[in-house]
Amino acid sequence: MHKILIIDDDDQLRMSFQKLLEEEDYIVDIAPSGETGVEIVKNQPPDIVVLDMRLPGMNGFETFQSIHHLAPKIPVIIMTAFGTTETAIEAIKMGAFDYILKPFEIPEMLAIIKQAVEASRLMHSPVNLDTQPFNDGDVMIGKSKPMQDIYKAIGRVAPTDATVLIRGESGTGKELVARAIYQHSTRSNKPFIIINCVAIPETLLESELFGYEKGAFTGASHRRVGKIEQANGGTVFLDEIGDMPFTIQAKILRLLQEKSLERLGARTAVSVNVRIIAATNRNLENALKEGTFREDLYYRLKVVTISLPPLRERQEDIKLLIDFFMGQFSAELGIKNPGITKEAEQILSNDPLPGNVRELSNTILKVLIFNTGIPVSSEVISQAVIGKVNFGNGDKGDDNDDQSRKLVKKWIQNYISTQKGNNLYEKCLDKFSAILISEIMNITGGNRTKAAKLLGISRPTLHAKLEKFGLTVTTSMKELDPQKNSWHYQNKKDKPTTKKV
Ligand SMILES: Nc1ncnc2c1ncn2[C@@H]1O[C@H](COP(=O)(O)OP(=O)(O)OP(=O)(O)O)[C@@H](O)[C@H]1O
Ligand SMILES: [Mg+2]
To answer: Which partner for 91 in 66, 96, 123, 439 could form a disulfide, CB atoms 3.0-4.6 Å apart?
Structure first.
């Protein structure tokens, strides 16, 4: 569980914040003043800090400076009112994670907290290379010659300040390598900021990376410091750089050559000291031919390249990976590792696995969720590999997508005709969430840990949703079907029927 420290002198806010975050499965520490906050960071460092700007005694800015000096890798989210935004911006320039204006919407705050917690995890959780014993963090598994070469390359480039380009198919471990380079570099106690060039809409990417000045465009009501400037002194990981828009590529080239950038709408450049690590699964040579990637940037980036081999080129590692994921996921799911038959292992080793390690790990998680305690057989693996494991509806290709779409459309039309037409968005999403959750609870036989894992939400969140939607195991169903362990989850307001919700 992740620990959040809230520093705010407002008792009311601290308490309601604490309650809210505890419900979201975070451990919360609170401090009524900057001085106490800094002490806590010193003695029991949290994963992230949420800090109010206006504090009695040591003010928010000074508190930020002390915390950042003590623990530069702990993301600090600043809460600020309109009057203090300038100071908040100053703090961002010095490396604060983000700021949020008071009064804020809870979902917006939770989203920033989630990002900060993830950033903290990526900075703190070590990436161990398979050559070393490990007991904490992630590990890169693989003893094959190509992987040994990767470990050596990481060791060689990490301590230099060189820009690195990581290439490889989807799911081959590019992000793990980027983190390993950062962690073994001389900048390892400075921030590591990940920017996924495809996840951010093209129109926002430039301002996200480089920031903007007040008035740079309609809606730019105040200055915003970009992610690159924010990472000053640290490392920026430009993920999926092959998909970066052409115009922004020019700005990245300038950053690499001149170590400076211009915020949008600014007249002068600011110098920044960041190390760039970039990754792509694109064929950049084709992109050059098609004119979607700049040649000058390509040559600048490719000087130090690490190319990750796909799994099919390191078959001997597949067994190690299977054993590793079986152990890891069994522990996470709280089940005994059921083991896997030789034949099943063989199928995975011979399968082309287009998604590489990610696909292998997802397949193993999938079969373990449905495992009933016996060793994983070749039939189960074949089904999982070709996507036949029944996750309820969906995931069966385009035809089914079309059909599902029609069904959903019909359902929405029905719903509109029978309900008062307000809050439709929320109502529909609630309705879908309730169906999804009850379906998953049925599939997992009522096991909340497995269901939460499959849904990708925390157990307390799942619990809250079951409560919210009034979903419960119907006793009548248990009586009807005691052997099959088919726990029919349904809305307690509905009458029990033999159908699932
Ligand atoms: N050698 C490895 N050992 C153990 N786990 C690995 C290894 N390589 C990748 N993984 C795991 O597989 C998943 C995908 O890895 P990662 O995100 O680093 O791949 P990627 O190359 O960045 O993929 P994409 O191109 O899809 O972004 C992660 O969960 C990662 O922890
Ligand atoms: Mg990736």
So the answer is: 96
Question: 233-264, pLDDT tens digit by residue?
Answer: 999 999 999 999 999 999 999 999 999 999 99
List, as one string, the DSSP characters of 353-385. -TTHHHHHHHHHHHHHHT--SSPBPHHHHHHHH
Q: Measured on CA atoms in the order 107, 111, 117, 118, is the torsion positive or negative? A: positive
CATH 3.40.50.2300 intervals, the chain = 3-119
Distance between CA atoms of residues 304 and 268, nearest Å: 31
- Report the chain's C-alpha Rg in angstroms: 25
> Is the minimum distance from the CB of 172 to ligand 1 under 6 angstroms?
yes
CATH 3.30.70.1350 fits 3-119, yes or no: no
As a CATH number, domain 127-307 is 3.40.50.300
Q: Residue 182 and residue 231: Cα distance in Å, rounded?
A: 13
pLDDT tens profile 123-178: 988 888 875 666 678 889 999 999 999 999 999 999 999 999 999 999 999 999 99
Q: Which of 294, 283, 287, 302 is nearest to 252 (CA)?
A: 294
**Domain 420-491: which CATH class?**
mainly alpha
Q: How far is the CA of 175 from the centre of ligand 2 (A)?
A: 5
- Cα–Cα nearest to 372, from 334, 333, 338: 338
**CA 86 – ligand 1 centroid, Å:** 40
pLDDT in tens, 389-420: 433 333 334 455 566 666 677 667 766 666 65
Task: Give 472 Cα–ligand 2 centroid separation in angstroms.
Answer: 38
Name the DSSP letter for residue 390. Answer: -
139, 212, 317 from 311: Cα distances, Å: 16, 43, 8
Q: Which of 388, 369, 315 shows the shortest CA–CA distance to 345?
A: 315
**Stretch among 8-12, 300-304, 378-382, 395-399 having the lowest mean pLDDT:** 395-399
Q: Where in the chain is the domain with CATH 3.40.50.300?
A: 127-307
360: CB partners within 8 A, 6+ apart: 311, 318, 321, 322, 325, 348, 353
CA distance 140 to 471: 40
- Which ligand places an atom closest to the C-alpha of 362? 1
